[in-house]
Amino acid sequence: MHTSILISILCIISGSHGYILPVNDFYFRNPRIVGGENAPEGGIPYQASLRSMLNSHFCGGSILSSRWILTAAHCTVGKTNRTMIVVVGTNSLLAGGDEYSVVDIKIHEQYNGNFISNDVSLVKVSADIQFSDRVQPIQLPNANTESGADLLLSGWGRLSYPGVLPVQLQMINLVSLSVEDCQNIYQGINPVYETQICSLTKKGEGACHGDSGGPLVEDGKVVGIVSWGMPCARGYPDVYTRVYSFINWIEDKMSEEATSYDMTKLKIIN
Questions:
Q1: Is 219 a catalytic residue?
Q2: What is the chain written as a DSSP string?
Q3: Using an 8 Å Cβ cutoff, are 61 and 86 in contact?
Q4: Among 49, 176, 199, 212, the one annotated catalytic
Q5: pTM value?
Q6: Active site residue 74
Q7: Is the per-residue pLDDT at 199 higher than 80?
Q8: What is the pLDDT of residues 131-162, one digit of tens each?
């Protein structure tokens, strides 16, 4: 039953990339927001767009600091500093913004692409991001997200499935679902873990292809990373990596790089 459900759901075409999604890719793997609205200019200053070297958007991200972007592991698997760039400071996929090359990619060591667990990654840009009214970092959470929390999702995912990517950044207000309820809904389809957050409001509202890696925000802090779901906004919960579960990993990776950089400078000085 599990296999037949996946095959029937997954024989679909991704308009943005022109390929048939493999069986485990009924999950977002390049999603977008359904039922949202245009974000105000400068209203989501922490939003990043991960793009190919041809400037084609494939995933979202969150600015954590002047050098680090938080995103999903499935967005960066197979990518290198030679195959992607980061754009910040614009709501448009066609114009504006500041472009940064990439020098390093950190993928969680226990990322599992079959079940989409530990779906978290860090991207380091080559130069300090210049902050402004349109470009600002977002804080990590200092508390866990509970069921019934008010959330804000943003991204350039598809407006419908099948459909096209929007030019303008989209945003939508959502509500978190308990892990237990989410597990029950996805029973027999795909496991849901305590290290994930689910959201569900109503059919016709949610994430879609192109939103992957993007920020889910609660009280001005990034609490989730768009990970997977049933495309798109069909009444099933969207599933996000729970950032609170990975704070130590995130901070350790960022501090490791900082320490390494400082030691290199000391050696040069000596």
A1: no
A2: -HHHHHHHHH--EETTTTEEPPGGGGS-SS---BS-EEPPTTSSTTEEEEEETT--EEEEEEE-SSSEEEE-HHHHTT--TTTEEEEES-SBSSS--EEEEEEEEEE-TT-BTTTTBS--EEEEESS-----SS----BPPSSPPPTT-EEEEEE---SSSS----SB-EEEEEEEE-HHHHHHHTTTT----TTEEEE---TT-B--TT-TT-EEEETTEEEEEEEE-STTTSSSPEEEEEGGGGHHHHHHHHHHHHHHHHHHHHHHH-
A3: yes
A4: 212
A5: 0.82
A6: yes
A7: yes
A8: 999 999 999 999 999 999 999 999 987 665 55
Q: What is the pLDDT of residue 147?
A: 96
Give the active site residue among 74, 176, 211, 238.
Answer: 74
Rg (CA), the chain: 18
For residue 212, indicate whether it is catalytic.
yes
Please tell me the distance from the alpha carbon of residue 43 to that of residue 135, in angstroms, as a whole number.
Answer: 10
Q: Which of 14, 25, 117, 119 is catalytic?
A: 119
Cα–Cα distance for residue pair 194/207, rounded to 1 Å: 20
Give 193: exposed, middle or buried? Use CB within 10 Å, 0-12, 13-18, 19+.
middle
